[in-house]
Amino acid sequence: NPPAIRLGINVDHVATLRNARGGDRPDPVRAALAAIAAGADGITAHLREDRRHIRDADMARLKAEISKPLNFEMAATAEMQKIALATKPHAVCLVPERREELTTEGGLDVVGQHNALAPFIAALNDAGIRVSLFISADERQIETVAKLRAPVIEIHTGAWCDAVVDGHKDKAEAEWRRIVKGAAFAKSAGLEVHAGHGLDYATAETIAALPEIVELNIGYFMIGEALFVGIPETVRAMRAAMDRGRATLRARTA
């Protein structure tokens, strides 16, 4: 039987909306609690250097108030490491970060940053924080993650999702093959495999049919959908899409 697949909800863009007007509303912690009540398995939040959406106080409140695991997305900087060690989330996902980007544009270059990442990851491991690295589905990157003793990768699915949405069938197929191959390689290397970035109902259903994938982290699409139907309905619809994908996998392997 394939392993169960978890759904993590990213609440960054609730904070984006709040910060556009100032003040305290809408509250990303309230959104996290609503998502959990509707069936989310965890909450993701990215504390950026420029604090463009999630703030330090949001991270502290999420850790204190939610009943499910908190996944702290962050750049591999001394400032963020200090905050993570003080917050003690369930997990940290290390991502590349450029101040001028609108969203995370690609995977972390683990190969090129190996020497800097080794002690950084070791300190988080020693604190009992589960470390994930957000990378492209590239075998060299995956091999390096395993050598760094990080137990989890999150595959960057943005290029595939963009190609699907834009109708670029050849590119979408090529990116999909990379994801399939990378997920299988990571599992064989002893890593737990997550995926995220740009996923919607259709792409989440597709990728949920990969047996190696045990967690999807989804934010922007779901917050956008929630404007029209609410957070609980959006979470239930995404869970249903993922369940359809898993059902396809079970039928294929029966």
Can you describe this structure?
With 254 residues, the chain is α/β, with parallel strands linked by helices. Helix content is 52%, strand content 16%. The protein has an 8-stranded parallel barrel with strand order 1-2-3-4-5-6-7-8, surrounded by 8 helices. Helix 5 links the parallel strand 4 and strand 5. It starts with 5 loop residues before the first strand and ends with a helix.
Q: What is the helix tally?
A: 11
Order of adjacent strands in the largest pleated sheet = 1-2-3-4-5-6-7-8
How much of the sequence lies in strands comes to: 15-25%
Which structural class is indicated by helix and strand composition? Answer: alpha/beta
Element order: H for helix, E for strand: EHHEHEHEHEHEHHEHEHH
Overall geometry comes to globular
- Oligomeric state of this protein: single chain
Helix content: 40-55%
Radius of gyration: 17 Å
The overall average pLDDT, rounded, is 95
Q: How many distinct beta strands?
A: 8
**Separation, N- and C-terminal Cα atoms:** 9 Å
Biggest β-sheet strands, sense, barrel? 8 strands, parallel, barrel
